[in-house]
Known about the structure:
The structure holds two protein chains of two kinds.
Chain A: E1 5-7, E2 10-13, E3 19-24, E4 31-37, E5 43-50, E6 65-69, E7 75-79, E8 88-95, E9 104-106, E10 110-114
Parallel strand pairs in A: 2-10
Antiparallel strand pairs in A: 1-3, 3-7, 4-5, 4-8, 6-7, 8-9, 8-10
Chain B: E1 4-7, E2 10-14, E3 19-25, E4 32-37, E5 43-49, E6 52-56, E7 59-64, E8 69-74, E9 83-91, E10 96-99, E11 103-108
Parallel strand pairs in B: 2-11
Antiparallel strand pairs in B: 1-3, 3-8, 4-5, 4-9, 6-7, 7-8, 9-10, 9-11
Amino acid sequence: GAGVSQSPSNKVTEKGKDVELRCDPISGHTALYWYRQRLGQGLEFLIYFQGNSAPDKSGLPSDRFSAERTGESVSTLTIQRTQQEDSAVYLCASSLTQNSNYGYTFGSGTRLTVV
Amino acid sequence: KNEVEQSPQNLTAQEGEFITINCSYSVGISALHWLQQHPGGGIVSLFMLSSGKKKHGRLIATINIQEKHSSLHITASHPRDSAVYICAVPSGYGNKLVFGAGTILRVKS
């Protein structure tokens, strides 16, 4: 696609339920990143995928969070047993490679509200 | 100390004013990014620069690698420039971005 597509754009869920967020990167972009922004706070790194290499999961805040990516295509971020502190905007970005001299393209984000 | 520091945190300007937002970073980098975030949450990449200066319309970004400092300037500011401006640098394995806290800009007409 022309840009990074994220779905859903908004999600309201009850505490304790599982949610799945989707990111469709730009075709051909091998690097994919998930970031989170909680209300009033800065962006924080969650997880990074580069091609078929093992992902960098160092930013995932708890074992309730997991993410998958098949090859160089769609990625899904799953949050199990959601808590209110999981409420945030979840942003996905992709880049041609992990070389930072290439730019990043961000999706519009998924606004998650846990009630 | 955060790897990326931005100033000011908040900025209110009158339409037409020249605006400067500053970013200092503590790590060695190959490129620095300026991002714009509108109230809906989506982020747009404004600039990626590794040296000197870049200009796009009324926006100008400069960087001094030796001093580890970058500035984003907006000339002839307009209310539609109101947004959060974020400085980010790649860090560590995979060059994942480390973000500044952002500068909330409000331009009044």
